[in-house]
Protein: Acrosin
Amino acid sequence: MLFLPFLLVIVATAKVACEHEHACNIRASCGCSTRLTILAKIVGGEPAQPRSWSWIVSLFDHPTNKFFCAASIISNVWLLTAAHCFIRRDHSDIIVHAGSNQLNDSTQHRHIAKIIVHPEFNQHTFVADIALIQLTSPLDMTDLSIAKICLPAIRDTIPDENEPTIDMNEYPPVNSAVVAVGWGQLAENDRSPSRELQQVTLKAIPYESKTCEDMIFDRSVQFCAGDEMGGKDTCQGDSGGPLMRFTSERQWILAGITSYGKGCGRPEYPGVYTRVAFYTDWINAITNGLVRRIDFSMEVSEVISRDDQDLFDDFLFNMCPSLNRLRLLYMIVSLGLQLYFSQSI
Structure:
Protein backbone atom coordinates (compact mmCIF):
# COMPACT_ATOMS: atom_id res chain seq x y z
CA MET A 1 0.00 0.00 0.00
CA LEU A 2 1.80 3.09 -1.21
CA PHE A 3 1.10 6.18 0.88
CA LEU A 4 2.35 9.33 -0.78
CA PRO A 5 3.06 12.67 0.91
CA PHE A 6 1.55 15.22 -1.55
CA LEU A 7 1.71 17.97 -4.06
CA LEU A 8 -0.70 19.15 -6.66
CA VAL A 9 -1.86 16.55 -9.05
CA ILE A 10 -4.23 17.14 -11.71
CA VAL A 11 -5.40 14.13 -13.62
CA ALA A 12 -6.21 15.09 -17.19
CA THR A 13 -9.93 15.53 -17.81
CA ALA A 14 -12.02 17.29 -20.38
CA LYS A 15 -12.25 21.02 -19.75
CA VAL A 16 -15.57 22.80 -19.61
CA ALA A 17 -15.79 26.22 -21.19
CA CYS A 18 -17.72 27.65 -18.24
CA GLU A 19 -15.43 29.82 -16.12
CA HIS A 20 -15.78 31.74 -12.88
CA GLU A 21 -13.91 34.94 -12.05
CA HIS A 22 -12.90 36.03 -8.54
CA ALA A 23 -12.32 39.78 -8.42
CA CYS A 24 -10.43 40.77 -5.27
CA ASN A 25 -10.87 43.79 -3.04
CA ILE A 26 -8.05 46.02 -4.32
CA ARG A 27 -7.78 47.74 -0.91
CA ALA A 28 -7.16 44.46 0.91
CA SER A 29 -3.80 44.11 2.63
CA CYS A 30 -3.58 40.40 1.88
CA GLY A 31 -5.20 37.66 -0.15
CA CYS A 32 -5.30 39.59 -3.42
CA SER A 33 -2.99 39.45 -6.41
CA THR A 34 -2.67 42.05 -9.15
CA ARG A 35 -4.72 39.89 -11.53
CA LEU A 36 -8.10 38.34 -10.86
CA THR A 37 -8.35 34.57 -10.78
CA ILE A 38 -10.25 32.71 -13.48
CA LEU A 39 -11.30 29.17 -12.61
CA ALA A 40 -13.01 26.57 -14.77
CA LYS A 41 -15.96 25.08 -12.91
CA ILE A 42 -16.44 21.40 -12.06
CA VAL A 43 -13.67 19.99 -14.22
CA GLY A 44 -10.03 19.07 -13.54
CA GLY A 45 -7.05 21.35 -13.19
CA GLU A 46 -5.67 23.95 -15.54
CA PRO A 47 -2.73 26.37 -15.90
CA ALA A 48 -3.05 29.42 -13.65
CA GLN A 49 -3.14 32.97 -14.96
CA PRO A 50 0.16 34.86 -14.44
CA ARG A 51 0.25 36.86 -11.18
CA SER A 52 -3.09 35.43 -10.00
CA TRP A 53 -1.59 33.48 -7.06
CA SER A 54 1.31 35.75 -6.13
CA TRP A 55 1.86 34.29 -2.64
CA ILE A 56 2.97 30.83 -3.73
CA VAL A 57 6.72 30.20 -3.85
CA SER A 58 8.76 27.17 -4.87
CA LEU A 59 11.48 25.57 -2.76
CA PHE A 60 14.58 24.16 -4.47
CA ASP A 61 17.37 21.97 -3.19
CA HIS A 62 20.36 24.12 -4.12
CA PRO A 63 23.01 21.37 -4.51
CA THR A 64 20.86 19.44 -7.02
CA ASN A 65 18.73 22.35 -8.30
CA LYS A 66 15.64 20.18 -7.83
CA PHE A 67 12.21 21.47 -6.86
CA PHE A 68 10.71 19.63 -3.88
CA CYS A 69 7.95 21.67 -2.19
CA ALA A 70 5.91 24.86 -2.22
CA ALA A 71 5.15 27.46 0.45
CA SER A 72 2.94 30.52 0.95
CA ILE A 73 4.00 34.09 1.68
CA ILE A 74 2.36 35.40 4.88
CA SER A 75 4.67 38.43 5.34
CA ASN A 76 7.76 39.89 3.72
CA VAL A 77 10.02 37.60 5.79
CA TRP A 78 7.79 34.64 6.71
CA LEU A 79 6.52 31.69 4.67
CA LEU A 80 4.17 28.90 5.73
CA THR A 81 4.57 25.34 4.48
CA ALA A 82 4.43 21.65 5.46
CA ALA A 83 6.80 20.25 8.07
CA HIS A 84 7.40 17.02 6.16
CA CYS A 85 9.13 19.00 3.40
CA PHE A 86 12.21 19.26 5.63
CA ILE A 87 12.76 15.62 6.48
CA ARG A 88 16.51 15.11 6.02
CA ARG A 89 16.99 18.60 4.59
CA ASP A 90 19.27 21.36 5.82
CA HIS A 91 17.89 24.89 5.55
CA SER A 92 21.22 26.14 4.21
CA ASP A 93 20.72 23.99 1.09
CA ILE A 94 17.34 25.51 0.18
CA ILE A 95 16.63 28.38 -2.21
CA VAL A 96 13.24 30.13 -2.32
CA HIS A 97 11.96 31.19 -5.76
CA ALA A 98 9.17 33.79 -5.75
CA GLY A 99 7.26 35.84 -8.28
CA SER A 100 6.59 33.55 -11.24
CA ASN A 101 4.20 30.86 -12.47
CA GLN A 102 7.09 29.18 -14.27
CA LEU A 103 8.96 26.72 -12.10
CA ASN A 104 12.46 27.62 -13.28
CA ASP A 105 11.85 31.35 -13.43
CA SER A 106 11.36 33.89 -10.66
CA THR A 107 11.66 37.60 -9.98
CA GLN A 108 13.14 37.14 -6.50
CA HIS A 109 15.38 34.55 -4.81
CA ARG A 110 15.94 34.22 -1.09
CA HIS A 111 17.91 32.04 1.30
CA ILE A 112 16.47 30.67 4.53
CA ALA A 113 17.57 31.90 7.94
CA LYS A 114 15.51 29.50 10.01
CA ILE A 115 12.92 26.73 9.72
CA ILE A 116 10.54 26.37 12.67
CA VAL A 117 8.68 23.07 12.62
CA HIS A 118 5.68 22.71 14.90
CA PRO A 119 6.79 20.83 18.05
CA GLU A 120 3.93 18.33 17.75
CA PHE A 121 4.75 17.31 14.17
CA ASN A 122 4.47 13.52 13.87
CA GLN A 123 6.40 12.06 10.95
CA HIS A 124 4.27 8.89 10.98
CA THR A 125 0.76 10.40 10.96
CA PHE A 126 1.66 13.87 9.62
CA VAL A 127 -0.35 15.44 12.44
CA ALA A 128 0.82 19.06 12.91
CA ASP A 129 2.34 19.01 9.42
CA ILE A 130 3.13 22.71 9.48
CA ALA A 131 6.31 24.80 9.53
CA LEU A 132 7.37 28.43 9.33
CA ILE A 133 10.25 29.64 7.16
CA GLN A 134 12.10 32.82 8.08
CA LEU A 135 13.96 34.41 5.17
CA THR A 136 17.43 35.90 5.44
CA SER A 137 16.19 39.14 3.85
CA PRO A 138 12.71 40.59 3.21
CA LEU A 139 10.89 40.10 -0.07
CA ASP A 140 10.25 43.25 -2.09
CA MET A 141 6.48 43.55 -1.68
CA THR A 142 6.31 46.42 -4.20
CA ASP A 143 6.96 43.80 -6.89
CA LEU A 144 3.60 43.30 -8.64
CA SER A 145 4.26 39.58 -8.89
CA ILE A 146 4.55 39.23 -5.09
CA ALA A 147 1.70 39.31 -2.55
CA LYS A 148 0.83 37.72 0.79
CA ILE A 149 -2.05 35.39 1.58
CA CYS A 150 -4.44 36.04 4.50
CA LEU A 151 -4.51 33.75 7.50
CA PRO A 152 -7.88 32.63 8.89
CA ALA A 153 -9.37 34.96 11.49
CA ILE A 154 -12.52 34.91 13.60
CA ARG A 155 -14.36 37.00 11.03
CA ASP A 156 -13.68 34.37 8.37
CA THR A 157 -15.86 31.90 10.27
CA ILE A 158 -18.88 34.22 10.19
CA PRO A 159 -21.18 32.28 7.89
CA ASP A 160 -23.07 33.46 4.88
CA GLU A 161 -26.79 33.80 5.49
CA ASN A 162 -27.33 30.27 4.16
CA GLU A 163 -24.51 28.65 6.18
CA PRO A 164 -24.58 27.55 9.84
CA THR A 165 -22.21 29.05 12.38
CA ILE A 166 -18.88 27.22 12.44
CA ASP A 167 -15.98 27.01 14.87
CA MET A 168 -12.45 28.08 13.93
CA ASN A 169 -11.44 24.46 14.33
CA GLU A 170 -13.98 23.51 11.65
CA TYR A 171 -12.64 25.95 9.05
CA PRO A 172 -13.06 25.65 6.10
CA PRO A 173 -16.77 24.75 6.20
CA VAL A 174 -17.56 21.29 4.88
CA ASN A 175 -18.72 21.19 1.26
CA SER A 176 -17.26 24.64 0.61
CA ALA A 177 -15.26 25.26 -2.56
CA VAL A 178 -11.51 25.48 -2.09
CA VAL A 179 -8.69 25.98 -4.58
CA ALA A 180 -5.31 24.26 -4.62
CA VAL A 181 -2.32 25.46 -6.64
CA GLY A 182 1.12 24.02 -7.21
CA TRP A 183 3.77 22.61 -9.52
CA GLY A 184 3.23 18.95 -8.63
CA GLN A 185 2.91 16.00 -10.98
CA LEU A 186 0.00 16.17 -13.41
CA ALA A 187 -0.74 12.45 -13.06
CA GLU A 188 -0.01 9.75 -10.51
CA ASN A 189 2.55 7.98 -12.69
CA ASP A 190 4.42 11.11 -13.74
CA ARG A 191 7.97 11.48 -12.49
CA SER A 192 8.48 15.19 -13.07
CA PRO A 193 6.82 18.34 -11.70
CA SER A 194 4.74 20.63 -13.87
CA ARG A 195 6.79 23.45 -15.39
CA GLU A 196 3.79 25.81 -15.15
CA LEU A 197 1.73 26.60 -12.05
CA GLN A 198 -1.55 24.64 -12.01
CA GLN A 199 -4.83 25.34 -10.22
CA VAL A 200 -7.79 23.12 -9.38
CA THR A 201 -11.09 23.64 -7.55
CA LEU A 202 -11.93 21.05 -4.90
CA LYS A 203 -14.51 20.60 -2.17
CA ALA A 204 -13.95 20.34 1.59
CA ILE A 205 -15.17 16.84 2.44
CA PRO A 206 -17.00 16.05 5.71
CA TYR A 207 -14.98 14.03 8.20
CA GLU A 208 -17.92 11.64 8.56
CA SER A 209 -17.48 10.62 4.94
CA LYS A 210 -16.03 7.11 4.83
CA THR A 211 -13.36 8.19 2.34
CA CYS A 212 -12.16 10.94 4.69
CA GLU A 213 -12.50 9.09 7.99
CA ASP A 214 -10.10 6.41 6.76
CA MET A 215 -7.50 8.98 5.67
CA ILE A 216 -6.97 11.34 8.60
CA PHE A 217 -5.74 10.83 12.15
CA ASP A 218 -6.89 14.01 13.92
CA ARG A 219 -9.90 15.87 12.56
CA SER A 220 -9.17 18.96 14.65
CA VAL A 221 -5.90 19.64 12.81
CA GLN A 222 -6.47 17.83 9.50
CA PHE A 223 -9.24 17.84 6.91
CA CYS A 224 -9.99 16.29 3.54
CA ALA A 225 -10.61 17.91 0.18
CA GLY A 226 -11.12 16.43 -3.23
CA ASP A 227 -13.74 15.42 -5.74
CA GLU A 228 -16.16 12.54 -5.21
CA MET A 229 -15.79 11.49 -8.83
CA GLY A 230 -12.00 11.61 -8.70
CA GLY A 231 -9.70 13.18 -11.29
CA LYS A 232 -9.12 16.37 -9.28
CA ASP A 233 -6.50 16.39 -6.58
CA THR A 234 -3.09 17.46 -5.42
CA CYS A 235 -0.13 15.13 -6.04
CA GLN A 236 3.56 14.62 -5.42
CA GLY A 237 5.31 17.96 -5.69
CA ASP A 238 2.39 20.00 -4.33
CA SER A 239 3.34 19.48 -0.69
CA GLY A 240 3.45 22.63 1.41
CA GLY A 241 1.38 24.58 -1.10
CA PRO A 242 -1.80 26.52 -0.28
CA LEU A 243 -5.41 25.37 -0.26
CA MET A 244 -7.50 28.54 -0.35
CA ARG A 245 -11.04 29.77 0.14
CA PHE A 246 -12.49 32.98 -1.32
CA THR A 247 -14.47 34.97 1.27
CA SER A 248 -17.39 37.36 1.10
CA GLU A 249 -14.85 40.13 1.75
CA ARG A 250 -13.29 39.25 -1.62
CA GLN A 251 -10.02 37.94 -0.26
CA TRP A 252 -8.30 34.58 -0.46
CA ILE A 253 -7.77 32.85 2.88
CA LEU A 254 -5.15 30.15 3.51
CA ALA A 255 -7.46 27.38 4.70
CA GLY A 256 -5.09 24.44 4.36
CA ILE A 257 -1.57 23.24 3.58
CA THR A 258 -1.13 20.32 1.19
CA SER A 259 0.02 17.42 3.34
CA TYR A 260 -0.50 13.89 1.98
CA GLY A 261 -2.71 11.45 0.12
CA LYS A 262 -2.90 7.99 -1.39
CA GLY A 263 -2.21 8.09 -5.08
CA CYS A 264 -3.45 11.10 -7.02
CA GLY A 265 -6.99 11.85 -8.13
CA ARG A 266 -8.46 8.58 -6.88
CA PRO A 267 -12.17 8.97 -6.01
CA GLU A 268 -11.89 6.78 -2.90
CA TYR A 269 -8.91 8.69 -1.47
CA PRO A 270 -9.25 12.47 -1.01
CA GLY A 271 -6.26 14.64 -0.23
CA VAL A 272 -5.43 15.51 3.37
CA TYR A 273 -4.58 19.07 4.39
CA THR A 274 -3.30 20.73 7.55
CA ARG A 275 -6.03 22.91 9.08
CA VAL A 276 -4.35 26.33 9.24
CA ALA A 277 -7.08 27.89 11.42
CA PHE A 278 -6.07 25.58 14.29
CA TYR A 279 -2.52 26.97 14.24
CA THR A 280 -3.08 30.72 13.82
CA ASP A 281 -2.19 31.49 17.46
CA TRP A 282 1.09 29.56 17.10
CA ILE A 283 1.86 31.28 13.79
CA ASN A 284 1.10 34.76 15.11
CA ALA A 285 3.04 34.22 18.34
CA ILE A 286 6.20 33.29 16.45
CA THR A 287 5.99 35.79 13.61
CA ASN A 288 5.17 38.61 16.01
CA GLY A 289 8.05 37.70 18.31
CA LEU A 290 5.82 36.87 21.27
CA VAL A 291 7.55 33.58 22.06
CA ARG A 292 11.12 32.40 22.02
CA ARG A 293 11.88 31.13 18.51
CA ILE A 294 13.26 27.62 18.63
CA ASP A 295 14.84 25.93 15.61
CA PHE A 296 13.57 22.35 15.42
CA SER A 297 15.51 21.50 12.25
CA MET A 298 17.90 19.16 14.09
CA GLU A 299 15.06 17.00 15.35
CA VAL A 300 13.39 16.92 11.96
CA SER A 301 16.59 15.85 10.20
CA GLU A 302 16.50 12.60 12.15
CA VAL A 303 12.99 11.47 11.28
CA ILE A 304 12.02 8.88 8.70
CA SER A 305 12.38 9.88 5.07
CA ARG A 306 9.57 9.71 2.51
CA ASP A 307 11.36 6.79 0.83
CA ASP A 308 10.75 4.73 3.97
CA GLN A 309 7.13 5.79 4.44
CA ASP A 310 5.64 2.76 2.65
CA LEU A 311 7.05 0.49 5.39
CA PHE A 312 4.53 2.02 7.81
CA ASP A 313 1.42 2.02 5.60
CA ASP A 314 -0.17 -1.24 6.75
CA PHE A 315 0.57 -0.34 10.37
CA LEU A 316 -0.97 3.12 10.03
CA PHE A 317 -4.15 1.95 8.34
CA ASN A 318 -4.74 -1.29 10.22
CA MET A 319 -3.89 -0.03 13.70
CA CYS A 320 -5.80 3.26 13.74
CA PRO A 321 -7.65 2.65 17.05
CA SER A 322 -4.38 1.94 18.84
CA LEU A 323 -2.68 4.79 17.03
CA ASN A 324 -5.34 7.24 18.14
CA ARG A 325 -4.79 6.34 21.80
CA LEU A 326 -1.00 6.44 21.43
CA ARG A 327 -1.18 9.75 19.61
CA LEU A 328 -3.31 11.29 22.34
CA LEU A 329 -0.84 10.11 24.99
CA TYR A 330 2.06 11.41 22.90
CA MET A 331 0.46 14.84 22.47
CA ILE A 332 -0.27 15.13 26.21
CA VAL A 333 3.29 14.20 27.16
CA SER A 334 4.73 16.45 24.43
CA LEU A 335 2.67 19.42 25.58
CA GLY A 336 3.66 18.83 29.19
CA LEU A 337 7.36 18.73 28.33
CA GLN A 338 7.02 21.84 26.18
CA LEU A 339 5.37 23.77 29.01
CA TYR A 340 7.95 22.52 31.52
CA PHE A 341 10.95 23.57 29.46
CA SER A 342 9.41 26.91 28.45
CA GLN A 343 9.00 27.75 32.14
CA SER A 344 12.57 26.66 32.82
CA ILE A 345 14.09 29.03 30.22
The chain has one domain: 1-312. Confidence is low (pLDDT under 50) at residues 1-17, 293-325. The helical segments are 210-213, 280-287, 297-300, 313-318, 320-344.
